[in-house]
Write a structure and sequence with these properties.
Layout lengths: L7 E2 L9 H31 L8 E3 L1 H24 L2 H31 L8 E8 L6 E9 H20 L2 H18 E3 L2 H21 L2 H8 L5 E5 L2 H4 L6 E5 L1 H20 L5 H24 L6 H19 L2 H5 L11 H8 L1
Parallel strand pairs: 2-5
Antiparallel strand pairs: 1-7, 3-4, 6-7
Helix pairs in contact: 1-5, 1-9, 1-10, 2-6, 2-7, 3-4, 3-5, 4-5, 5-9, 6-9, 6-11, 9-10, 9-11, 10-11
Length: about 350
């Protein structure tokens, strides 16, 4: 996950956005941020129960969470130096090719469940296998073993068409299609192993975001130089200039995925309680809307880029914790595992083993 994008206003000196255009841009960014969190969280529930190797989630441990802000800071500063030393044009050309491949695969994975619902069961869905091996006979070793069907192939074709469009035109709609796919896949496939890990990750990135936005110009510089679909953008001059608009407000995918995987964990916790209720999911989801809205308000008021996690982290962590305290489920919530099921207390496990 790329963590060096921020919610920022990319304004030009010659154009002042109308109130309507600004409202449309901000409202669209909020809506686009909510879609991958909501549907990614729902898909994460099924993903945690899946036995298919291609759908197995990647679990983030507390050790991973503690390292992540350091790794992200090194990556961010490294990119900053690259943009200062080397030609921005060539760097973005290489990144475009790299994200073209990733984007095609991410969009294909996103569309796959939709295709399964659209096509009837009578659709001739043939199975394929892409197999690369090394050696021969007894020493043969599998390098790539990828199984797919006709529906998957169709998804890849659609993803490739969007990829070529992005590669040739860098159009903001193609950028957003890839960005939404990246965000949804991140929320679906990245699972925190417990709430403690989530707090470590969000707390570390809270400090990271505040430091790099307010303490230096590094993040803003990289965000405006980096031409890759790791941010959602929407033009503030859309009403005046149509689809050819170029004055963008933008929201980094990190400000969607990081809170999103925490919200998804709380949804799996709701499911594990078997109370036919989604209290923690809806609480954290509304908290995210509140935090993002507050970010936009402060940014618009002070006309300065804001670290969105400064507002999102306290809201997304604080609101569910308060609800858990009121309901008397705080201990149970903090024992939740990656799949959403509370972990048995250590003393109980020792007693059972003895």
């Amino acid at each position: 996950i790329e963590q060096y994008e921020i919610l920022a206003l990319n304004a030009t000196a010659k154009f002042v956005a109308s109130p309507e255009g600004t409202a449309l841009a901000y409202g669209s960014l909020v809506l686009m941020a909510l879609l991958p969190i909501f549907f990614g969280a729902l898909r994460s529930v099924h993903c945690s129960k899946s036995k298919n190797a291609s759908d197995m989630p990647e679990t983030i441990t507390s050790r991973d969470a503690a390292r992540f802000p350091i790794i992200a800071s090194c990556t961010l500063f490294g990119l900053y130096l690259f943009f200062k030393v080397f030609s921005q044009e060539y760097i973005n050309m290489l990144l475009s090719v790299y994200f073209f491949g990733l984007g095609v695969l991410a969009l294909s994975h996103t569309l796959s469940p939709l295709m399964s619902r659209i096509f009837p069961e009578s659709f001739p869905n043939k199975q394929y296998q892409l197999l690369f091996t090394q050696g021969s006979d007894d020493t043969k070793e599998e390098i790539v073993n990828y199984e797919f069907d006709t529906k998957n192939l169709l998804c890849l074709v659609i993803g490739a068409v969007v990829g070529v469009w992005y590669l040739l035109k860098k159009h903001w709609i193609a950028n957003n299609l890839f960005g939404l796919a990246f965000a949804l896949n991140g929320v679906e496939l990245l699972h925190l192993n417990n709430v403690n890990t989530g707090c470590i990750l969000l707390g570390g990135l809270f400090v990271y975001d505040v430091f790099w936005v307010f303490g230096t110009n590094v993040m803003v510089t990289v965000a405006r130089s980096f031409e890759a679909p790791i941010k959602l953008v929407f033009p503030q001059d859309l009403l005046e200039r149509g689809l050819g608009a170029s004055n963008f407000a933008m929201l980094g995918l990190g400000d969607i995925v990081i809170p999103g995987i925490f919200i998804a964990l709380l949804l799996r916790f709701d499911v594990s309680l078997k109370k036919n209720s989604r209290t923690y999911f809806y609480t954290s989801f509304l908290a995210y809307i509140f935090g993002l809205g507050l970010t936009i308000f402060v940014m618009h008021t002070f006309k300065h880029a804001q670290p969105a996690l400064l507002y999102l982290v306290p809201a997304c962590v604080g609101f569910p914790v308060v609800v858990a305290l009121i309901k008397g489920e705080l201990t149970e919530m903090f024992r939740t595992t990656a799949k959403g099921f509370p972990q048995e207390p250590r003393t109980k496990r020792i007693y059972q083993n003895s």
